[in-house]
DNA sequence: CCAAATATGCTTTGATCTTTACAAAATCGT
DNA sequence: ACGATTTTGTAAAGATCAAAGCATATTTGG
């Protein structure tokens, strides 16, 4: 079952295993005494003691010498996971903006850099901006590229295992871009490129409205509809990275859905196409009949695709996210009503609360997961940035 | 990551872990020498020796004393997993038949009992037949109920976590049946009730055409269409057990698809509705224009639902199974053609080869998985039937 | 100031795996 | 047929690690 069961385990490996369990315990509940760790891991106090000291020696943990202590008895040393031992990047390369987040190993965000980009920017220009944003983010936190342990970049459109954008993307000329190769020149750490919807789903489970669920359908609703799927607590990419692309099926009217908003009669000439949807939502909120009809038709079409996903996966939660989630007050109830009509078992339908940063936040989380995977797979030697492959 | 990393591991647990790894190694490649096991597990030869002898003592393994030996050197004792230490049942409760398979812990089928049932049989009658079949199967192999370590029963229609049939089933009155409670009177082992499509998918990955794939969409094609999903090598039930029920969405024309066959013009009056599809497939094979048209329309509608599943999950393989898989020669190529048109990334499309037993076979596999899960989770004490909960 | 409570450090004990060594059993070459 | 070679079985020694127990240190509360 576990990979440990397939291969024999000797004493050093046992020690490593127990060290890892202490690391986990340290990360879950910060500053802990040896006794607390002993209780949480089930290991004996002396065992925890030597392991904790080993972790301090290796640089994985720091000691808080006893100071003011409210409890009775001799004050205990407290051990703390050294979250600052490494940092990870999460970057969202969108059509209009690039957003980079830098966080420590506990996921605390220490630097945020945002930069607008022209929607029609060619790859070379967009990559240059990406480099600027990443440089500013890393340097702004006083870090060097070698301090970065993992990078995840979110892009629009399905992505294959090598990080190449396939099938479709609204970014001009983007299919020829190899982001891993581009960033790999300056960063030796693992670099992952992933679809924005999938990452937003991850964020929603990490810090959003779906943190209690293991089976999640995330809808990225905007001028383009997308979906991210979390099944049994794990983000699913599909065999070729194209999971969730239900919008490609014409019988499911996802492509048309936003058009109902854009083509709504009554939108003033002065409103740009990009802002038409927001105008329609506002008008609907104020009671405009045409706008309400457009929103109604939008939700009806959106629900068909959502129902296809829900019927396929039977999730616990459907999260309504993306740009349109600001108008969730208008969408959520009719969406629930339509899903009730179309689905067998009705899932929870919730509106995203993370806003525009959710994609970058999900990228950050995937970077953290990448670090964790390597840590718990390869074992903890010394806290230095892992190398690709 | 692994559950072992969360909780501390002490010496006895280490021994148990290594014992389990030996059990796995034994099961993967039968009769093995200590040296072979040592190489496969990475453990030292003496360690493997004491563990193997311990397994023999506990009843998990048997020794084959050295006999004729072609290799040079002193002939080695060979250890063998005692597959006969326990047995599991896989039962398919269909509309027209009940089929029970009994297998040892290696999955070798030792008893098969099949019994036809009237389609309109009431629950009481069907349950009585089920009891008869199971009794005959267990007794026929010379076993007692206490020798059975796990039972899985396949039924048509979605099933919740408690094994209750929900939403829909063609079995009359079946929604009121609690199979776990019914069988629990005579069997103390774990009893699982699962949807037939899902189990057939499992069988196809175990012994069928999809044994190389981890991401599989299985289509159970017959007078009713169903689907079973395997994602990352694990059968997915969905949060409420209703995963794969894409047929409920009207925009996806799964409900109508078989009707094209049943309502095909030219079917003789003498052919019963149940056999109409087979007649149409045969006629199409012989060049009948109306029949070919009906098959064409059938495939077109089938493909829409399949495409919804494929676009959602992006599987490696789509398996065309169920009763109509006998006519795969007529369906496979047009199905591929339609999917190519509708999908982004084209999966492998393969026809099932397991035939009518695939559902019971999948039930057997789920029973084996259940036993394995308990074994590798709870550890190996003595080889006796596990208790429910 | 003293007893109770709690935390730490150290030692002993027991369990486990690995390494090393050697005898036993079979085959191969002469 | 007989010794060399190879492989297995087993025993002893060494190393690593966790558990248990005990002495010591430090704070709290009276």
UniProtKB/TrEMBL annotation, chains A, B:
Pfam families reported for this sequence: HTH_IclR, ROK
UniProt cross-references to SUPFAM superfamilies, sorted A to Z: Actin-like ATPase domain (SSF53067), Winged helix' DNA-binding domain (SSF46785)
Which superkingdom does the taxonomy of this entry point to? Bacteria
The UniProt GO MF terms for this protein read: DNA binding
**Alphabetized InterPro entries for the sequence:** ATPase_NBD, ROK, Tscrpt_reg_IclR_N, WH-like_DNA-bd_sf, WH_DNA-bd_sf
Q: Name one GO biological process term.
A: regulation of DNA-templated transcription
Domain HTH iclR-type, which positions?
A: 19-62
Give the family per the record.
Belongs to the ROK (NagC/XylR) family.
This protein is called what?
A: Transcriptional regulator
| Organism, as annotated | Rhizocola hellebori
């Amino acid at each position: 079952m576990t990979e440990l069961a397939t291969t024999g385990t000797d004493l050093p490996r046992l020690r490593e295993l127990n060290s890892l369990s202490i690391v986990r315990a340290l990360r879950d509940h910060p500053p802990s005494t040896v006794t607390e760790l002993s209780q949480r891991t089930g290991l004996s106090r002396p065992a925890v003691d030597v392991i904790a000291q080993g972790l301090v020696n290796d640089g994985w943990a720091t000691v808080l010498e006893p100071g003011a202590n409210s409890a009775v008895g001799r004050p205990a040393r407290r051990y703390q996971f050294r979250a600052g031992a490494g940092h990870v990047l999460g970057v969202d390369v969108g059509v209009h903006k690039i957003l980079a987040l830098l966080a420590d190993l506990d996921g605390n965000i220490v630097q945020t850099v945002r930069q607008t980009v022209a929607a029609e920017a060619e790859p070379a220009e967009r990559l240059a901006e990406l480099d600027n944003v990443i440089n500013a983010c890393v340097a702004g936190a006083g870090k060097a590229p070698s301090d970065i342990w993992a990078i995840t970049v979110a892009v629009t459109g399905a992505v294959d295992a090598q990080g190449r954008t396939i099938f479709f993307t609204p970014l001009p000329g983007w299919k020829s871009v190899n982001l891993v190769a581009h960033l790999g020149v300056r960063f030796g750490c693992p670099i992952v490129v992933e679809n924005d919807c999938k990452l937003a789903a991850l964020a929603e489970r990490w810090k959003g409205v779906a943190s209690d669920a293991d089976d999640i359908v995330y809808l990225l609703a905007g001028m383009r509809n997308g979906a991210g799927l979390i099944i049994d607590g794990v983000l699913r990419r599909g065999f070729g990275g194209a999971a969730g692309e239900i919008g490609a099926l014409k019988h499911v009217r996802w492509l048309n859905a936003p058009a109902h908003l854009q083509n709504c009669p009554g939108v003033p000439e002065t409103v740009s196409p990009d802002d038409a949807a927001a105008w329609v939502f506002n008008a609907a909120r104020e009671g405009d009949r045409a706008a309400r009809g457009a929103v109604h038709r939008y939700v009806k079409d959106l629900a068909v695709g959502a129902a296809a996903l829900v019927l396929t996966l039977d999730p616990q939660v459907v999260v309504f996210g993306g740009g349109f989630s600001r108008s969730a007050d208008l969408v959520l109830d009719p969406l629930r009503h339509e899903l009730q009509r179309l689905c067998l078992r009705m899932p929870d339908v919730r509106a995203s609360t993370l806003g525009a940063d959710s994609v970058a936040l999900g990228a950050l989380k995937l970077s953290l997961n990448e670090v964790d995977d390597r840590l718990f797979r390869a074992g903890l030697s010394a806290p230095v940035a892992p190398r690709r492959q």
